[in-house]
Write a structure and sequence with these properties.
- With 242 residues, the chain is α/β, with parallel strands linked by helices.
- The chain folds into two domains: 118 residues, Response regulator (Rossmann fold, 3-Layer(aba) Sandwich); 106 residues, LytTr DNA-binding domain (OB fold (Dihydrolipoamide Acetyltransferase, E2P)).
- 29% of the residues lie in helices and 32% in strands.
- The protein has seven helices and 16 strands.
- The protein has a five-stranded parallel sheet with strand order 2-1-3-4-5, with helices on both faces.
- The chain is globular.
- The N terminus is likely disordered.
């Protein structure tokens, strides 16, 4: 049975990279169940994958981490800013922090279940559907985003946080979110500094939406957002913590 996970049907060119033949076959079978995925190739190591990426330009990579020679993390670091979206598929839980620092879409632990696989693909598809989105901020109160031929005005007072995801930024508004094709740095330069603060290389948060801070993380709407050491001092000064 094929599953279409998007109302705006798109075909996502996908590359599977894993040194284990059985793992590649498993991911291939999972991918065949999703109508929006087109597996355009497989690679048994990072160097082979690098060549395919240069020649075929996949939109999404299902990428193992521990492989002979170059690791999956090293491969991602070697790609330029126009890199494909990355979903790590690995049995190594300890690399999760390093992986998310690279702004990957998701981190799947093997054995990958169908439901968890679909969840990750849905995130990637949502990002690709928003690839044409641009943004503009006016009068410190509103965010204007262009999504295809529609311009939406969004109230910044309702925005909870922004999360970097590869070449995209996810804007969270609690019950809904929008995705823009931008960098977190570009967004940071446009947001009013009195209302928003960078707390991590992957997160900007709304100061007024902070519920609490505990165990080194900021809690907003039940989501724990990490605070990097490089931003902690500025955060404390901004919040005037006693």
């Amino acid at each position: 049975m094929h599953i279409c996970i998007s109302s705006n049907f798109i075909v996502v060119k996908t590359l599977i990279v894993d040194d284990n033949k059985i793992a590649r076959a498993t991911l291939q079978q999972l991918a065949l169940r999703v109508s929006s995925l087109q597996v355009m190739g497989e690679a048994a190591d990072a160097m082979e994958a690098f060549q395919i990426i240069r020649e075929a330009s996949p939109q999404l990579i299902l990428l193992d981490i521990k492989m002979p020679g170059m690791s999956g993390i090293e491969l991602v670091k070697s790609l330029n800013h126009n890199r494909p979206l990355i979903i790590f598929t690995t049995s190594q839980k300890e690399y999760a922090t390093d992986a998310f620092d690279l702004n990957v879409v998701d981190y799947l632990i093997k054995p990958v279940t169908p439901s968890r696989f679909l969840q990750a693909i849905e995130k990637a598809s949502g990002l690709l559907e928003s690839a044409g989105t641009t943004m503009r901020i006016e009068e410190d109160n509103f965010l204007f985003i262009r999504d295809s031929n529609i311009i939406r005005r969004i109230n910044l007072n309702e925005m909870l946080f922004a999360e970097a995801m590869g070449d995209y930024v996810k804007l969270s508004f609690g019950t809904k979110y929008y995705t823009v094709h931008s960098t977190l740095k570009a967004l940071e330069e446009r947001l009013p500094a009195s209302k928003f603060i960078r707390v991590h290389r992957s997160f900007i948060i709304s100061i007024g939406k902070i519920d609490s801070i505990r165990d080194g993380a900021i809690i907003i709407n039940d989501k724990a957002i990490p605070v990097a050491d490089a931003y902690r001092s500025h955060l404390n000064k901004t919040l005037r913590i006693l």
